[in-house]
Amino acid sequence: MADLKKASEEAKTMEPEKTEKVPAGEREAFLEGYRSKMAELIELTEELGKVIEAGKWTEAKGLIGQINQVQREGHQKYRAEEN
Q1: Per-domain boundaries in the chain
Q2: Largest Cα span, the chain
Q3: Are 5 and 49 in contact (CB under 8 A)?
Q4: Alpha-carbon gap, residue 39 to 36, rounded angstroms
Q5: Residue 82 pLDDT more than 80?
Q6: Cβ(44)–Cβ(52) under 8 Å?
Q7: Which end of the chain is more exposed for a tag (fewer CB within 10 A), N or C?
Q8: pLDDT above 70: percentage of residues in the chain
């Protein structure tokens, strides 16, 4: 959990791959959306750590699903398409 949280916090400070393709007038909103999505991922990761420590496995399973969804959405919107 600590590795996932650390990687997410580091990624939040970076610019996504697609940034250079976004028109200059839209970049700030694009980056704000990216940082917001990363903050959501970090929050879910922290919550997952807490429920795992508490042994709440059903809740943990639900959070893993949410984390996967947030990650998929973020990658679709912010990751450059592979050729």
Answers
A1: 2-13+23-78
A2: 47
A3: yes
A4: 5
A5: no
A6: no
A7: C
A8: 98
CB 30 within 8 A of CB 79: no
Of 9, 12, 10, 6, the C-alpha closest to 78 is: 12
Show Cβ contacts of residue 57 under 8 Å, excluding neighbours closer than 6 positions.
none
Torsion sign, CA atoms 18, 22, 13, 1: negative
Place of tokens 């791959």: 17
The predicted pLDDT at position 3 comes to: 87
CB-based contact 45:8 (threshold 8 Å): yes
Spell out the residues 6+ positions from residue 81 whose beta carbon is closer than 8 angstroms to its own.
none
